[in-house]
Write a structure and sequence with these properties.
The protein is α+β, with helices and mostly antiparallel strands. It contains 2 helices and 6 strands, in the order H-E-E-E-E-H-E-E. It has helices at residues 2-27, 108-111, and strands at 36-41, 48-53, 70-72, 75-77, 118-122, 128-132. The strands form 3 sheets. Strands 1-2 form a two-stranded antiparallel sheet.
């Protein structure tokens, strides 16, 4: 019985060790990658330089940008500085929603209180905002 338990114990221990390594690999955050890399030489010293440009979303962590020395073409490059430029863009899109409701009358004075002047909206493609009622677009029809 003892001879069978030892190999089983070692197999379970090995499986646990492999599982822990996989968990550790998943926990490490991925580094960010540049969207543009430019190689150039300085005018005054004729030194080779590399400039990397990163575009980060509001949810990206800037600490994930690699800052350690690296080697390229036999040369070692060291980070000199990091320049941050805020790029605030606003992307807008016109959106309409049709609201249908029943009322007891065709009188606009009775219908208007039933309609909200503004409402929150979210589209399938990720846009969010507040819609404002366009009173000129209201149409009244007899139901049935």
């Amino acid at each position: 019985m003892k001879k069978r338990a030892a190999p089983l114990f070692l197999a379970v221990l090995t499986a646990c060790a492999m599982t822990c390594s996989a968990w550790a690999a998943e926990a490490a955050p991925a580094a960010l990658y540049p969207v543009e890399v430019q190689e150039y030489r300085t005018e005054d010293l004729n030194e080779p330089r590399i400039s990397k440009t990163y575009e980060l979303s509001p949810t990206d962590d800037p600490d994930l940008i690699p800052t350690q020395d690296f080697e390229r073409s036999g040369r070692v490059y060291t980070l000199l500085d990091v320049v941050r430029e805020e790029q605030t863009e606003t992307d807008s899109k016109y959106h309409t929603e049709t609201v249908t409701l029943n009322s007891k009358s065709k009188d606009m004075e009775e219908i208007m209180p039933l309609l909200a002047v503004t409402c929150e909206a979210a589209t399938e493609d990720g846009y969010t905002g507040v819609l404002t009622l366009d009173t000129a677009s209201i149409q009244v029809e007899a139901s049935g």
